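Comment thread on ticket #2218

A.B. wrote:
> Attaching the input chain for the structure job we discussed in standup.
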Amino acid sequence: MLESDMGLLEVLKTLGDGRVIDDLHEQLNECLMAVRMAHKKGKVVLTLVVTPSKDAEMSKVTVWGDVTSKIPHIERGADIFYVTGENGLSRRNPRQPALPPNTVKMPPRAGHEDELDGQSRAAGERV
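C.D. wrote:
> Ran it. Output below, let me know if you need it in another format.
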């Protein structure tokens, strides 16, 4: 290797004024995060196209780089909605009657009687 020869990393750093290696880094990070979250495989592909010079006597080439990726997607479940008479969406089944609000008083938790007494006093009740 000659002293002026560039290694692969040096070539990548100069392709597209550094944008190719920046894209590679960015898409690899995005792929890693998605793979961890989705628990599915992903892919990042670096493509280098080398084209010879039209002048056959010159040892000159052009190098073009591109980065593509296949990022896995997280499967999301479907949610159930009911269509209202006005073509809106609702979570409430119109055929099911509404339940009355919960009015049951819960007993105090063991060891937390003081909290209930304090709340009762704050509400103006006698203990």
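A.B. wrote:
> Thanks. Noting for the ticket: The first helix runs from residue 8 to 14.
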